[in-house]
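Hypothesis: this fold can be encoded by more than one sequence.
Test: take the structure tokens below, design a sequence, compare later.
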């Protein structure tokens, strides 16, 4: 369906750039200046709810005022100097507040065996000579978005590792990772301000990171990564990534500063069409129209791509062409088609989204020019992927609730969320949450709904009366890192249940190791395929060193699994952990969590990931990933 096109596409691009500023602010943990409330924005001021049972008040998150109800732990995002120091759970609020039916599945976990070899030990960075004054240059020696004081990894995280190996490793991660928390960790490693490793050009290093961020659905972060490189330093690879990045942000005006260089570096016809669009933005309608007409005669591009370019030209200054876009013969969604359609006020058909890679859903969820109902439809994918934080999900539904033009079914979902937070009757709150959790049978949507209700679950009172839903309440809290709130249920949750297993993993301060008998009780209640979750529980406890060697080996023998592995990937992540390379471990963990769904994850892979993260001081991330495996396994 078409909506009135924007009179100025350039204005649309600038508006979108302004709207994405909060995403960067949220990434730094500074999304709000006002005191934080767990009540969803826009839902009014209900009567005070009964306070949860008394528990020690954890420290509030950095840069946030204390919440009126027990706050989730939001520990530091930087690995401590002493790897054995307990680290509180991370918060998903460092996820950009800018916004999967798996139609196109990433490569299976087994693809990590194709990792490149890291054979070099010493590297020398070549220096680039500039003719600009020093004060006007941005060096390729250090590229990134967030520093260590904003949750990033240390500046020298990759200084001793071969850049060509790291670039190939990043390129081999073919899309979203299975774990939401794994994706959040991988994003931190990719956007950190770090020295460019030896053996690789800084432009190629930035291009590889931006390209993976795009695959992960992180359009705003990919664009910020590109904007950290001066256009004079762009190479062919970076031009290709920049084209897709600006289109993924539905911001074709962003291509104009690089369109001349891109045309020289590539013979791709999209650069010729972009030149026409940029001429239109500059008021040179005659030149823009002439170029489009010539491209039409040459038939170098598909009809739909040329029509979208022509429509974008018509949206420029003094544009007079009216173009109708028909999708009848289009069977594939591309960045060009997605970006120009949204930028000119058109929504591609849902059938194209369903057939496309899941990254398009994540892109749509954070695109402010998309109708809010379309964004909510894609939010399930984005939340499960780690692109949307729990707070951003609540904001999205709050906006839908406040809108007078929202469809009845979407508004009804938003009303349920309001009740989950604000209703004075606890039974009504819980029934609202269970209705939200049961909205869909799609695995991604199921987990996304847990993310949506995480703050409501964190402020829900502990009571044996609600023990039947304790496991899902715990899973909801842990989806946003509220580990200490979840631990309040430790005396209420049933032994051998999923809730018990998640608490055994997520406990930031365990007193005792778990026994073989406790794991065996869980195994008796485990109805997952081939007792997959029992294997995940064993892998998590072994990786966190919360089970004795004897009990670990005995239970592994019962499950007929071998936690040890001599694969190239296992050797690489173990070596990186032994040498304390936390950011390198994060990249390898992402490489080890690829797949269409959690059935592709093995207990052996999970063990190596959790163990390596725990060794390098990323204990909180290790616990959240392992608890997520139980919730989604």
């Amino acid at each position: 369906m078409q909506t009135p096109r924007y009179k100025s596409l350039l204005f649309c691009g600038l508006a979108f750039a302004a709207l994405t500023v909060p995403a960067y602010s949220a990434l730094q943990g500074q999304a709000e200046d006002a005191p934080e409330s767990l009540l969803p924005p826009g839902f009014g001021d209900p009567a005070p709810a009964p306070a949860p049972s008394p528990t020690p008040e954890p420290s509030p998150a950095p840069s946030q005022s204390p919440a009126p109800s027990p706050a989730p732990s939001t520990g530091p995002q930087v690995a401590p100097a002493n790897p054995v120091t307990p680290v509180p759970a991370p918060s998903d609020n460092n996820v950009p507040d800018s916004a999967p039916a798996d139609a196109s599945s990433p490569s299976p976990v087994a693809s990590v065996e194709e990792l490149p070899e890291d054979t070099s030990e010493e590297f020398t960075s070549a220096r680039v000579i500039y003719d600009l004054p020093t004060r006007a240059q941005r060096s390729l020696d250090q590229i990134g978005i967030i520093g260590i004081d904003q949750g990033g990894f240390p500046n020298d995280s990759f200084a001793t590792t071969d850049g060509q190996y790291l670039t190939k490793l990043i390129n081999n991660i073919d899309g979203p990772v299975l774990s939401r928390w794994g994706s959040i960790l991988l994003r931190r490693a990719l956007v950190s301000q770090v020295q460019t490793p030896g053996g690789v050009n800084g432009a190629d290093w930035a291009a590889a990171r931006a390209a993976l961020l795009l695959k992960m659905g992180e359009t705003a972060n990919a664009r910020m990564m590109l904007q950290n490189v001066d256009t004079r330093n762009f190479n062919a690879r970076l031009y290709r990534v920049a084209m897709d990045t600006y289109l993924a942000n539905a911001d074709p005006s962003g291509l104009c500063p690089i369109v001349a260089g891109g045309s020289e570096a590539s013979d791709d016809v999209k650069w010729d069409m972009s030149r026409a669009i940029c001429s239109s933005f500059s008021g040179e309608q005659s030149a823009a129209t002439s170029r489009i007409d010539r491209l039409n005669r040459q038939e170098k591009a598909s009809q739909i791509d040329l029509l979208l370019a022509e429509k974008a030209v018509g949206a420029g200054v003094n544009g007079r062409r009216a173009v109708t876009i028909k999708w009848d013969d289009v069977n594939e969604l591309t960045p060009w088609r997605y970006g120009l359609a949204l930028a000119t006020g058109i929504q591609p058909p849902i059938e194209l989204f369903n057939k496309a890679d899941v990254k398009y859903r994540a892109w749509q969820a954070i695109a402010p020019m998309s109708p809010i109902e379309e964004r909510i439809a894609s939010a399930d994918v984005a939340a499960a992927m780690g692109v949307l934080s729990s707070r951003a999900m609540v904001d999205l539904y709050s906006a839908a609730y406040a809108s007078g033009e929202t469809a009845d079914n979407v508004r009804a979902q938003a009303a349920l969320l309001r009740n989950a937070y604000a209703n004075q009757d606890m039974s009504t709150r819980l029934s609202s949450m269970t209705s939200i959790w049961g909205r869909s049978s799609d695995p991604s949507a199921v987990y996304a709904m847990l993310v949506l209700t995480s703050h409501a679950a964190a402020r829900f009172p502990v009571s044996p009366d609600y023990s039947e839903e304790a496991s899902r309440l715990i899973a909801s809290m842990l989806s946003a890192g509220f580990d200490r709130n979840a631990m309040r249920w430790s005396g209420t949750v049933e032994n051998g249940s999923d809730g018990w297993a998640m608490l055994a993993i997520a406990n930031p301060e365990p007193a005792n190791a778990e026994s073989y008998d406790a794991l065996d009780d869980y195994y008796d209640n485990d109805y997952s395929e081939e007792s997959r979750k029992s294997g995940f529980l064993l892998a998590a406890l072994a990786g966190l060193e919360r089970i004795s060697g004897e009990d670990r080996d005995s239970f592994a023998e019962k499950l007929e699994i071998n936690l040890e592995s001599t694969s190239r990937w296992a050797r690489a992540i173990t070596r990186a952990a032994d040498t304390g390379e936390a950011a390198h471990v994060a990249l390898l963990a992402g490489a080890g969590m690829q797949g269409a769904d959690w059935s592709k994850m093995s207990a052996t892979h999970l063990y190596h990931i959790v163990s390596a993260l725990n060794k390098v001081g990323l204990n909180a991330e290790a616990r959240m990933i392992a608890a997520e495996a139980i919730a989604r396994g």
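Residues 1-88, 94-113, 119-130 have pLDDT under 50 and may be disordered. The beta strands are 142-143, 194-195.
Hypothesis status: open.
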